[in-house]
Amino acid sequence: MVSFNPIHNGHLALAKHIVLSNEADELWFVVSPNNPLKDQNELLDEHIRLEMTVLAIEQNNKLKVSDIEFGMPLPSYSIDTLRKLKNEFPQHTFVLLIGSDNALVFDKWKDHEQLLAEFEVLVYPRRGYDFEAVQSLYPTMRKLNTPYYDISSTQIRNAIRNQRPFEQYLPKIVADFITENQLYL
What we know:
8 helices, globular, three-stranded parallel sheet, alpha/beta, two-stranded parallel ribbon
């Protein structure tokens, strides 16, 4: 339910922190072909983004990649994806992880009140986004106690476009894939 355009070390560090701190047994990276709240002009083909995500997590059996949204109607809505995951994998309990930036615009999400009623929502605190404001709007959302990972996919794409170093923000295998395939130029 994230673009992963591209997946980066911040995504991976947060995922590892969540499983190591026992917030979740596994963390699933659901690659979204079409996020209704993102600029579609910036988005690489979903299969390329999926491939980079698979490469990034292949060494960690607690991290999984899903393309479940690839067969769903576009645009992708989290409530529909979570319901489908719950239906297809009834042995799992699914929890949504979002950044505090997304939590502050949660009212723009499709069926956001129903989503909160059906699923737990964990919030990654981003710098500059007040979690107290989130908590006052959505008291059932739970803030994660996690380090900050000050990195963004936008920052990486801009560095590549401007021919600045970007490799330090990505797993080596992903950085090499981007370079070899001349992505984000």
